[in-house]
């Protein structure tokens, strides 16, 4: 299978099993990017409307793909509310993990 892919000009980035006698090296960085894209497609398939193609036209299907992608993208930045009635806690905020002391004099 690898020879057929290479004949088409594709570089296979699937690691070999550890039990194989001949190990073909794989670029870890490229494999991590491939894995991230594959996981993104799997998350998009969780939207039933995308997996079953409810939309009749390609434009409306593409529109929902974009909506689903934005919903996945926003989950990276906004996880859950702080619970104190304030704004939403962002995951990339370094102070988000620290509990806020209500009395700053302590």
Automatic annotation (TrEMBL):
Pfam families: DDE_Tnp_1_2. Residues 83-106 are annotated as: Disordered. It comes from the Bacteria. Residues 5-73 form the Transposase DDE domain. Residues 87-106 have a biased composition (Basic and acidic residues). This is Transposase DDE domain-containing protein. The lineage of its organism: Bacteria, Pseudomonadati, Pseudomonadota, Alphaproteobacteria, Hyphomicrobiales.
């Amino acid at each position: 299978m690898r020879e057929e892919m290479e004949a088409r000009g594709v570089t296979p980035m699937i690691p070999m099993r550890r039990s194989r006698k001949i190990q073909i090296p794989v670029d870890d960085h490229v494999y991590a990017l491939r894995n991230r894209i594959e996981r993104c497609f799997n998350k998009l398939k969780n939207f039933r409307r995308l997996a079953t193609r409810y939309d009749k036209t390609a434009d409306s299907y593409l529109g929902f793909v974009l909506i689903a992608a934005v919903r996945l993208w926003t989950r990276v930045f906004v996880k859950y509310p702080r619970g104190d009635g304030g704004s939403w806690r962002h995951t990339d905020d370094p102070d988000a993990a620290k509990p806020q002391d209500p009395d700053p004099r302590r």
